[in-house]
């Protein structure tokens, strides 16, 4: 039994001239004897027009195998040990796997000869050809023609399915009160961050190609089946040419906002209300002492953005103007450079103060974010605790002089109950940077998408299984009903957007 892996060469044929049968010279060949190639028998003697032709000529043909196997010329095989190894074709292939068989315009490289074959990374996305035959070990010849079958393309097995895990007591969270919806937050790793770097050297190059990753990511995102999708690190061309049409076909309404600097980056985000941290940074810069204004401009004026949208629930296929059936969803990707914790705290504080204006209408909040900050850091503490006194670490401008580091949103982290969790897994770092935060007074977590173990992910991410270095987060929330205050005017939403399905929130794609 033997296996071979096929290598395609575009549309090229394997020979310019017509190859004819070694028995019936007037007929074109369609079958080739692989043993003839092993034994260095001239190729033109290895071709037959049909399997029946090969079987009929077998007695004469196997004699040529015997004669070739008895030949001990070192120019062909090197030494007798290799000849014996070729005779034992039911054992291992020779150490050199250079031997290539041509068939029907394709090249097949020998990769194994055992009953079980475990494909390597090099064999992914190629077909396998399995050959079986009876062999005379003493003579090194076949008793029967070669029977072969060709498989489909070898693919990586799907990773283990991630399940939703119920949170809290059933009596409290599984009641019929309120409205249930799901939200997904996922940093998909922009294609530009896989170029010209050795950070993903552990991942096969082909698995980093955007053409492969985008299909893997889309399949994963769609299988999570969330009502609201928030994505980070979506490049503008990938949004227009891929994510927008693909998600629209599946009933989602997609919104997008690109980062503000078009020279250095093509990443972006999506929203109804746009928040560009640059504009707020300009206010701080103008308030600085003249000798600090230059440093302030280069330090705070990063090109990150936040996307904020107010969504209206669909109840039995129709909307309700009551404020109790609306939620506000924000999506952001905070500045990443390690030695600028003050910039991250500034961007988080700016987002929080923008959201506080909406909470005056008693609308609950959801924040999906890659904060580039671990639990307990200043940006995280500001969100969860509601206040920090100062910024630890590098803070030359002392931003607390220009922006309040306090808020009243009463936020909690959906995944806080998961001990020792991580949302990014690379060779250099594994930890939590991504969060789904929510208004604890109006939203209750019913279930969460379980997090994978490091052992299940392999060396690091991305990989052929998982096409981002981050882990997708998904939460199911119940929006608890609350009597709308008569003192508040109905919120004037900028755009009335289509819905994905009945009893669902508007589906939103964000970066």
How would you briefly describe this protein structure?
This protein has 511 residues and is an alpha+beta fold. Helix content is 24%, strand content 24%.
What do these coordinates show?
With 511 residues, this protein is α+β, with helices and mostly antiparallel strands. Helices cover 24% and strands 24% of the residues. It contains 13 helices and 29 strands. The strands form 9 sheets. It has a 6-stranded mixed β-sheet with strand order 17-18-21-22-26-23. Strands 4-5-1-6-9 form a 5-stranded antiparallel β-sheet, with no helix packed on it. A 5-stranded mixed β-sheet has the order 10-27-28-11-12, with no helix packed on it. The model is unreliable at 1-16, 72-98, 170-175, 261-272 and 483-511 (pLDDT under 50).
Helix-strand blueprint:
Layout lengths: L1 E6 L23 E2 L1 H5 L8 E2 L2 H6 L1 H13 L3 H4 L2 H8 L12 E4 L2 E7 L14 E6 L2 E2 L4 E2 L4 E7 L10 E3 L3 H4 L5 E9 L22 H15 L3 E5 L1 E2 H14 L3 E2 L2 E2 L8 E3 L3 E4 H11 L2 H11 L4 E8 L1 E2 L2 E2 L6 E8 L7 H19 L5 E6 L7 H8 L25 E3 L10 E2 L4 E2 L2 E6 L3 E7 L4 H4 L15 E7 L28 E2 L2
Parallel strand pairs: 11-12, 14-29, 21-22
Antiparallel strand pairs: 1-5, 1-6, 2-3, 4-5, 6-9, 7-8, 10-27, 11-28, 13-16, 15-16, 17-18, 18-21, 19-20, 22-26, 23-26, 24-25, 27-28
